[in-house]
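Quick one: structure tokens for this chain, please?
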Amino acid sequence: MSGRPVPWEWAWGATGMTRDAGRRGGVDEQAVLLVAGLADLAVSTLGSAVGTVRQLLRRADAAELAAEAEQDLRARGRLALDRYTAVPPAHLEVLARHARSRQAADDV
């Protein structure tokens, strides 16, 4: 490397491995570090998920687990659709009903 330090270089300080003080990378460098961190997280998460799937496939009751997982996914899907597709009542309609009920109460 050149004699010019880069933001991702580490230096040994009095307390161990620390980031060089006073150095801040540019926006491009920060974006690269962020993307690299996200990619590393995604790869490690995917590796853990693959290991879990392998363990599940080795089980004797894999068919029952798959059926339960399917039921759970359907229930989650139903809840998600209900949460995001439920249309709240129209505000003016609610006000009109309220006014109509007050008017009916006053007429009695």
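Residues 16 and 48 are 30 Å apart (CA to CA).
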